Amino acid sequence: MTDTRRRVKVYTLNEDRQWDDRGTGHVSSGYVERLKGTSLLVRAESDGSLLLESKINPNTAYQKQQDTLIVWSEAENYDLALSFQEKAGCDEIWEKICQVQGKDPSVDITQDVVDESEEERFDEMSSPGLELPPCELNRLEDLAELVASSLPSPLRREKLALAVENEGYIRKLLELFRVCEDLENREGLHHLYEIIKGIFLLNRTALFEVMFSDECIMDVIGCLEFDPALPQPRRHREFLTKTARFKEVIPISDPELRQKIHQTYRVQYIQDMVLPTPSVFEENMLSTLHSFIFFNKVEIVGMLQDDEKFLTDLFAQLTDEATDDDKRHELVNFLKEFCAFSQTLQPQNRDAFFKTLSNMGILPALEVILGMDDVQVRGAATDIFSYLVEYNPSMVREFVMQESQQNDDVSMCMKTIKGNGDILLINLIIEHMICDTDPELGGAVQLMGLLRTLVDPENMLATANKTEKTEFLSFFYKHCMHVLSAPLLANTTEEKPSKDDFQTSQLLALILELLTFCVEHHTYHIKNYIINKDILRRVLVLTASQHAFLALCALRFMRRIIGLKDEFYNRYIMRNFLFEPVIKAFLNNGSRYNLMNSAIIEMFEYVRVEDVKSLTAHIVENYWKALEDVDYVQTFKGLKLRYEQQRERQDNPKLDSMRSILRNHRFRRDARTLEDEEEMWFNTDEDDLEDGEAVVPPSDKMKSEEDLMEPITKFMERKKLKDTEEKEVLGKSSLSGRQNPSFKLSFSGSTKTSLSSPPSSASLNPGSPGSPGSPGSGARSSPSTTAVTTRGGLVGGLVDYPDDDDEEEEEEDDGESKEDPLPPSKKSKLSS
To answer: Where is there biased composition of kind Basic and acidic residues (predicted)?
Structure first.
């Protein structure tokens, strides 16, 4: 049996700081001659290949996490992790690592343990601080070693940070950097790189404030250009001073704000481009750097938000027709970055931010920008619009409804100028979705998602005075739906799509996806629109598309409609014979087993399983000849059977009424209810009985009033004839104190498929019709009867109707397990 204790997954950290799974295997430890030391070996459980061979280095810091994870850095920027299936295996390998390094297995990080006596450690903690070597060229190597040796210990890190801060060491180091650079002292520059990188890892805000000041930050970036691992230094300062240019799209009068923007950009550049990717141990050491950038952004947003003149000028220039295209492009990009910065705000601050933008008129400004021809400007405006929709869709909905109301209040002349009131913000979004020039429709997909958010009732507000859902959906279907469905209606005027290229099909698929969402969530509004505009007929034209994904979208749309089981929809489908294009698509697909085939069969199977009677009758009466030969699934034959059972019930209303009573009360055995049923059944006149039908007379033995609730047996008989006629006899003995009527029901089955179920031995009584040896039982007769005993003692005889075979099989089992066999003295006798 496989040893699961040592079963592990091997992970490596990639450049994106994500863990990559290298495989699953079993870990072991042992001496490897090639590596000259004890090593960790992991062999794949699939083929035994070597997944990992890593020497346990005495100076490598191994870290144990969460009881089942061991993490370490194999080399710079190459981190490894072993994830164990069981804690016991992790503990076993951890003890081996600690043994090689001479550490106590109780620790979680091997290099955190300092080999000092308690007395020495106490002396270090009580010492006033760490003494730094003089800041001179010939002591840079000593300082680099001191910084490197202090980083593993939190206590030494703290002391080093205090010493660097108190002695003003950073400015001295940067002076040395300028000297080394002038002398082209490459060794000294390499030492300075290690020292400055180490100071970053001290994770101290006070040091960052010095390093990121205007007079120091460029020299700090210069130090980080001389990475010893690189043959040539980087040119970060050249990029920041010559390539990257700061543009004030709106003049910033506050010098503090301008300085804060410069600083944030440069620090972000250091984090993203200059500093090497931190190892798994160093990542937490840079948390203060992340916080420094974060709070800078929050401060910038707050300062801009408070500058009303700045925002007023911004929106004025955005909407001014005299603004040139380049300027407007810069303004929109600034506003986009401004909104992106706002994502760092806390929820209450973000509320105030978007409220300020709303008060300044951001939505009317976006409407103007989206109406422009510049594709890049429109793209940036779309991104800004997405921030607003994701943050507060109700704000956007309120704006477009107010805009519509204003358009309705203006004169007819103004309406004509405005395009009959259709130049609304939401209609601009729809038009941009429809007119997306990207072959992959990337912008259209984004805009469709925004529209879906806007029309989603789940995020609409409802108050005592108004309901946003009712108001907005009424507005949307009146002013916007015709714009959304225009490409669909224009492309489906014939029996096949007018344009069937890939891009058009993708667009129609997006529109159908949104319409399908509306069918699921809007009910009343979309139902009126579909029926009045005959949308489903147009959609089903797309089943003839050469693109399977579009045909499937059309089928999905119809399937959602049928799934609602709404008779308004059903009558619309039947009146317009809308199953016809579906049947054509099914037949044209032939015998291919694909998504099209499965989707269509599932639709019909749903109609059969849910017993949608109107659609079942419509399908069989109109399309049975086209479907009768499909026998690799039983769906269509099942539909035909459902249809015949419906007709059977229509032709025999008494039988249908009796069956419904039996079904409704099969599990509710209320004696009072059963007496009402008996009144209805036994009031049938004997004159109604036809000749040749079997009669079940009353029992020979009369019962007293006290025996009224005593159980008695009811007999049933069903005979199948060769000419496909079926006759069933349902008998019920009478109760004392009443007349002794006899009754019988018969019907002729018209189904071509013979359904039979095996008789239940527990329900056949000696002497009953159909039992072995009983009078009147024929060789071809195989009746199936079930006797169910009620709580009050009455027994209801249930006829096994052809359409109830599936249900009866389960219920017969329950009945057999629950009923008690009646003693012979209690059984009724059948008289001929």
So the answer is: 715-730
